[in-house]
Amino acid sequence: MQSHRYAQILERIQAALEASRPVFARFTPGAIETEYKAGHDPVTEADRALDAVLRKELSREDEGWLSEESVDDAVRLQRSRVWVVDPLDGTREFVKGIPEFCVSIGYVENGRPVAGGIYNPATDETFLGSIDSGVIYNGKPAQPSQRRSLDGALVLASRSEVKRGEWKVFENSSLSIRPMGSVAYKLALVSAGLADVTFTLTPKNEWDVVAGAALVESAGGFVSTLEKASLTANRRDPLLSGLLACGPFLKNELLALVEPHIPVAEQSR
Asked: What is the value of pTM for the model shown?
């Protein structure tokens, strides 16, 4: 990776992921006090501690910063290079002791996610990559699924969405649907070919998906918004309508599968 344009960025991401390790070591998943933000989203001391460490490791004066656990600063909109971070994606799973949570670090250049790093401390998995270097999974080159049919494909679904009944329309299909926490972790698994597809038809914030989307595209996979467009990041409103991701040969089938279920308002945009 060292000969590529984003080599230094990847080194900074790697260093930040490493810096998160001792922070995680201070907490015990499944045995941590939890508070709730507006909208009933959980937040813990670990979320805040990780945010502080990542910001210290990554932030530079000429770069923007967007994090779930930081007050949004509109100055980022004036920056061409921006960090989009979720210090602890999958807080619900972390609180319950389910090993599906991660640190998610995305790097955006002129609105495009170009590099990312995701680390799951519970499974000791690290995903790191950029659009000109490919993806490294636990130190080895990885590629997305080369499957050419959705028949029997492993699709990672949001555990919360499944619980709310939002995946019932897909239950009788030929897909192999596996509920899982942390959208960032699901995208990372797709980038390394450890799952074929993941998608969400419900709104997600940029910090949820930018790092994972960068990894999927860096590996050669397919990423799309519900409006059938490339993901553009560092927007004034960071809320996205949803996201699709899969191996390169499943693009058309995936779009055809989900299109009837995308809210009309999103299809007409």
From this structure: 0.94
